Structure formats: structure tokens, C-alpha cells
Amino acid sequence: MAGSAMRYTKVFLAVVAVLMFAAMALCIAATSLVSWTDMTNFREGLWKYCVESPSSIGTICDVYDSAECNAEFQTTRAFSVMSIILCAFAACMAIAMLAKSSLVKKLIWPLVCMTAFAFLFAITCWVVWFCRGESPKCYERKSYGTAFILQCVASGVAFLGAIFAICLACMLKKKKEKPIAQKEIVYPPPPVPVDTNNYTRVIGVEYRDLGYINPSAQYPAPPQYPEYPSSYTQPQPIYPTLQGSNVAPTYPQLPTAPLGKYEYQPVPSTAYY
After folding, report:
1. Domains of the chain (ranges plus CATH)?
2. pTM for the predicted model, two decimal places
3. Which of 104, 139, 162, 232 is buried most, with the most CB atoms less than 10 Å from its CB?
């Protein structure tokens, strides 16, 4: 089970690293191209603009000194650069976790935060530019070029990387085990040794066989038994061993107890006729 979990972890980390590298490359391409706004004779990027002259001069490009709606322009630049940096950090972090598995549990949530912020910065970049292009005070430059589309794709790729990172974090999250409630064990009081030769019966339990009594119970007096005849109390005789193969063993006569009124009396044979 642990081997399959580690294999899935490496697959997810590899996917996150590839996606964040792809998002970084797309953000770099979108930031460097002069085609965020693409009109007939005018192209605009984050750092410079180009004007196509109908004469033989051709295309003239120049760096921005000041642009219309400067606040939105600077915001787009800042978020574009930050998205590149965060995508690079997230990709490097995923590669480090792939190289050393002991860093997975330590860096999984920082990786989630890094990919999430990279996605937010990438999507904020083109959203601000879109608001700038749709604003009447910025001359409504509604024609968007290749760089704008690349930035939109980069935000989508960063979103996929963040989703994979969140799924990996949920896989690695351990469920808190609830403590098992143990029942309190109540032990009985220690047994009181008694003489097992005495026969005592209390509440249907033969304590002669158990060898102990309940100290909290009230016991009746043991019954008084009459003395047994001496014939039952005498020790058993020791039988002699054979002294030869042809000598039959002799056994002493065992004493018999008087039967009293229950003694067997032979019936005369004449009683049946």
C-alpha cells in the first residue's frame, strides 16, 4: 500500500513540475512579445509599442515613456513578472520533492500555496489588461493579440498545476484516528482462603470446590455430619505382589459396613410355590 501511494505521489509531483514549467514558459513568451494589443498599424506590448508606417520606413518600435491608463499598465507588468517567478519556484519545489521523498510532507502545502498564487497572478495579469482595453478613457483598444492569448493559456495551465497540487495534498493528509474508549475494568476483592474440607453452600454456589468465600455474604453454619463407621475410615490394605508365575495372589478380606435395616435378606425358595 505504501509503495503504490509513493508511486502516485511521484506521478502527481512530475505532472505539477511539467505544468508549472509550461506555465512559466508561456508567461515569459507573453511578457516579451509586442502583441498584447494588435491593431491595423499599431501593436502594443508590456514594455514597448510598434507602429507600422505606410512609407518605406517600415515598422518603428519604441520603449514606453508613459502610457495611457498608467496604473493598469504597471499592474499588468507587475503581475506578469510575479507569475513568472512563482511558476519557476513551484516547478523547482516539485522537482526537489521528487528528488528527496522526505521533503514531500514538509513542502506539500507550500507547493499548494505557490501554485495557487501563480495561477492568481497569471489570471490577474490579463484581466487587468482586458479591463484597460475595454475602458473608454484608454481609447478602447479591443483588438487583442497573440501575447494576450498566451497569457490566458498560461493561467489555465497554472490552474491545472494548482489542482494537481491540491489533490496530492489531500491524498497525503492523514485522518485523525479517534481514541478507542476503554471500559473501566472492576476487579473483584481478593479471595479469602478457607478450609476446603468444610462443605459450605451459599446461594447455590459450592465454595468447597472453588476454595474461597465471598467476604460480604452471610454464611449459615455448616451442617453437622455423624461420624462414619471405623470400617470406612481405615486405610486401604496394600495388596501383595506375585512371588512366582504359578502362585495366585491372595487378597485380604475387606471389612464390610453394617447395613442395618437395609441389609439384604435372602428369600426362601418356597415362597414362589
Report:
1. 21-172 (1.20.140.150)
2. 0.59
3. 162
